[in-house]
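We store sequence with structure; for instance:
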Amino acid sequence: MSLGRSPLWMALMNHQISFLKQSNQIPPDLLRRLFEFRHEVFVQRLGWVPARGAEEVDYFDTLGPHYAVCQDQDGQVIAGARLLPMAGPSMLRDVFPALLGDRPCPQDEGTWEISRFALRPTRGDRTAHRRALLSLVGRMLDFAVDRGIHRLVAVSDTRLERLVADATGLPIHRLSSPQRIGTDWAVAGWTDVSTAARAALADRLRRDRARDDARTAA
């Protein structure tokens, strides 16, 4: 069963998750809000990208990527990521090669890169915050399994790396030590994709849901 289409998945929270390919297939307003959210994170907060207007858009957005987008009930983008096969241009190879250390950059068809991976800082509701992250990661894992992708490589700040590891329980392997970029530390890491990993995440989601339901009933 696809995690993305299961009742368990739909019960996560009132978030809307979509995989959207290419800008001409995305509602213009959603695309604008996604790029504005990226501007908040990667320009204003992390300082990874110089300021150019109110949206953060780069060359890799012209390559037909898939986007994972998580919105709240008000339509605010609260999490997002971009996925591209590493057989072509990638941020890790072409923008952040220092994060590879001494390793060669993966460039096979079965390895995809997650870039511009970001989560809006919590405003007090940590349960909703965690579930938004679980939703986004679960969708990306589901997407990868369904397409025969065997490995996901991500570039992120170290704070998000810790949040993903703690929330999902997925083993994340660093390619090298973190590097200072802008105002924060960046790191590249990978995780293997498999039906077993997807099942483990589904089990974690069930336990997470049961724990929260028990707290609500207490």
Summary: The chain has one domain: 3-217.
